[in-house]
Amino acid sequence: MQKTVKSLLNTLLYRHQLGFEIFDLLAILVDFGLEKHELRWARLVEKTPVYKSPTPYHPAPVYKSPPPPTPVYKSPPPPKEPYYPPHTPVYKSPSPPVKPYHPTPVYKSPPPPTPVYKSPPPPTPVSSLRSPTTSEAIPSCTSIQVSDPPPPVKPYHPAPVYKSPIPHHQ
Fold first, then answer.
1. CA–CA separation, 36 and 29 (whole Å)
2. CA 127 from chain center: how many Å?
3. Per-residue b or e along 76-98, where b marks 16 or more CB atoms closer than 10 Å to that residue's CB
4. Euclidean distance between CA atoms 114 and 30, whole angstroms
5. What are the start and end residues of every segment in region (Disordered) (predicted)?
6. What does 34-101 look like in DSSP terms, one character per residue?
7. Contacts of 114 (CB under 8 A, 6+ apart)
8. pLDDT tens-digit profile of 27-61?
């Protein structure tokens, strides 16, 4: 023990002369304290008697439960394809017939009937080339028959379709 202390002191002085820092000195002192503690512990262990039991110590065996069996996963069998014997032909049902598309006919109203005008009666033939008399030269109003003109035909206009006004975004 005395040799250890002397060697530590010599080391301290030597390091101090070389200019080591204070942290090194503290580390050496801590080492010295640990050595002292270890020496005390060694003495304590030497002084304590070791008692031997009359029967040897056999610890109880530790039983481990067996591991659970690993589950065996079976993959599903592959899907079976239908079996057709060689002599049996495979028939596919025909697809249903496609109905032709007939659009709904659009009905247009018939045009208005055109008015039938009567042609004027042919002029009465003037008897041979004789000169007309005064009464024949100027016909009277009663002798000429004028038919009333037909009423004017109104043009056909379908009813207008009104759409709601589109709102203007501002």
1. 11
2. 101
3. eeeeeeeeeeeeeeeeeeeeeee
4. 133
5. 56-170
6. HHHHHHHHHHHHHHSPPPPPSS---PPPPPPPPPPPPP-PPPPPPPPPPP--TTS----PPPPPPPPP
7. 153
8. 777 777 766 666 666 666 666 566 666 666 777 77
The band of 132, judged by pLDDT with boundaries at 50, 70 and 90, is: low
Determine contact, residues 14/25, Cβ cutoff 8 Å.
Answer: no
pLDDT tens across 137-146, in order? 555 555 566 7
Q: Which tokens is 161 given?
A: 């379709």
| pTM (whole model) above 0.90 | no
Whole-number Å distance between alpha carbons of 31 and 15: 15
For 111, residues 6+ apart whose C-beta sits below 8 A from its C-beta are 156
**What's the rounded Cα separation, in Å, for the pair 120 and 145?**
10
Residue 120: φ, ψ to 5°: -65, 155
